């Protein structure tokens, strides 16, 4: 995924916090606790304390944050004629959400029905009959609640908007106000620190500080985000307060979200760094490792070198193949970072890096969730 920043005034790249965006990921963590093992305690305590009415309404609307993270949580990036700035508190963020026009609000709320067209600039289902039919059909495939929601949203967007605002305000009263009070200091500190890095060391260093999955290309005019999702946007194009906003989150890991809807200000929503969290493996490296282990002979070689170091000759003799064949397989494993080698006299010993292999499942899960 790429964000074109050629010609963009560096002063328009900003780090900010957003209570509404954080609420969105907090709700996601409640719906998908398996994605966030470090938040199990918080999720369990919060879910247990919810009153039945609020729990039912959250279940009714969870498609806004469970399968896809709706752009309504970052409405500041889509208000036509806006300045692209976030609110100081949840009430201000919700006021900004109220300023999002109906076409963009409906398209963002129904994002789960047209995820494949997200970056194509598809017309709003409010004004396009084909998109309306598609949205209703896709919503029906998700279930009766989603179908009813989509129908009501397309028929009377104002009433649904009021319902959603009230839902978020009730979440704030029930649990989020206390949660935000606890995490906002850390998030504000992270945003200040990244801003300082940006000013003192430049954009490349700042992007590296955000995540090892975010980088600035050699020409300095494009930001690359290492995700399985493909997409691109232009931060310098005329849009909502043209520029780029980066927002830290305490609830996001392992997700690294990029808002790249046409006409919206690009946003990178990144998890704050914590020492106990591993750095994300690149998608390319993950694919390389999985392909390296998929070959039957390399799997058999791994069985040996997982137990103790072996020489090339020993492996060739054990498996009845030539030493050059073993060397070719070991080269693939070494290129993928799966084995280590050390010399003992005139012999070279090869051993599987079991720590790296043990992380492969976690790396895969984090890679597809990123």
Outline of the structure:
This protein is α/β, with parallel strands linked by helices.
Structural overview:
- With 370 residues, the protein is of the alpha/beta class.
- The protein has 15 helices and ten strands.
- It has helices at residues 19-31, 40-49, 52-61, 90-99, 102-109, 129-142, 144-155, 157-201, 203-210, 283-294, 296-305, 312-319, 323-335, 354-358, 360-369; strands at residues 2-4, 13-15, 214-216, 222-225, 232-234, 244-249, 257-259, 267-271, 339-344, 347-352.
- The chain has a four-stranded mixed β-sheet, with helices on one face. A four-stranded mixed β-sheet has the order 2-6-8-7. It has a two-stranded antiparallel sheet with strand order 9-10.
- Strand 9 and strand 10 form a beta hairpin.
- Helix 4 (90-99) crosses helix 8 (157-201), helix 8 packs across helix 9 and helix 10 (283-294) packs antiparallel against helix 13.
- The termini are close together.
How many strand segments?
10
What structural category arises from helix and sheet content? alpha/beta
Unreliably modeled segments: none
Which sequence of strands runs across the widest sheet? 3-4-1-5
Task: Give the N-to-C terminal Cα separation.
Answer: 12 Å
Q: How much helicity do the residues have?
A: 40-55%
CA-based shape: elongated
Strand content: 5-15%
The main sheet comes to: 4 strands, mixed
The overall pLDDT, averaged over residues, is: 90
Question: What Rg is obtained from the alpha carbons, in whole angstroms?
Answer: 24 Å
Number of helices: 15
The secondary-structure element order is: EEHHHHHHHHHEEEEEEHHHHEEHH
């Amino acid at each position: 995924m790429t964000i074109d920043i050629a010609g963009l005034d560096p002063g328009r790249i900003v780090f900010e916090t957003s209570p509404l965006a954080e609420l969105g990921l907090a709700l996601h963590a409640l719906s998908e606790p398996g994605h966030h093992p470090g938040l199990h305690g918080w999720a369990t305590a919060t879910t247990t304390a919810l009153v039945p009415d609020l729990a039912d309404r959250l279940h009714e609307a969870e498609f806004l944050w469970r399968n896809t993270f709706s752009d309504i949580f970052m409405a500041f990036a889509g208000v036509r004629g806006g300045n692209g700035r976030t609110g100081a508190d949840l009430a201000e963020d919700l006021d900004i959400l109220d300023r999002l026009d109906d076409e963009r609000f409906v398209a963002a709320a129904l994002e789960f029905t047209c995820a494949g067209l997200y970056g194509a600039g598809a017309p709003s289902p409010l004004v396009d009959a084909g998109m309306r039919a598609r949205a209703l059909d896709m919503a029906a495939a998700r279930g009766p609640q989603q179908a009813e929601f989509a129908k009501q949203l397309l028929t009377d967007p104002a009433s649904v908007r009021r319902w959603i605002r009230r839902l978020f305000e009730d979440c704030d009263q029930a649990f989020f106000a206390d949660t935000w009070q606890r995490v906002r200091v850390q998030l504000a500190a992270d945003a200040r620190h990244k801003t300082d890095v940006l000013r003192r060391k430049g954009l490349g260093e700042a992007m590296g500080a955000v995540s090892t999955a975010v980088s600035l290309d050699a020409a300095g005019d494009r930001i690359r985000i290492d995700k399985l999702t493909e997409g691109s946007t232009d931060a310098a194009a005329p849009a909502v307060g043209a520029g780029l906003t980066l927002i830290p989150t305490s609830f996001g890991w392992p997700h690294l979200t990029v808002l790249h809807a046409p006409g919206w200000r690009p946003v990178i929503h990144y998890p704050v760094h914590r020492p106990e969290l591993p750095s994300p493996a690149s998608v390319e490296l993950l694919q390389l490792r999985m392909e390296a282990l998929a070959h039957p002979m390399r799997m058999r070689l791994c069985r040996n070198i997982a137990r103790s170091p072996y020489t090339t000759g020993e492996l060739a003799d054990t498996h009845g193949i030539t030493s050059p064949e073993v060397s070719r397989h070991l080269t693939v494993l070494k290129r993928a970072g799966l084995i280590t080698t050390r010399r003992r006299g005139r012999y070279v010993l090869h051993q599987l890096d079991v720590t790296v292999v043990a992380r492969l499942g976690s790396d895969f899960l984090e890679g597809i969730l990123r």
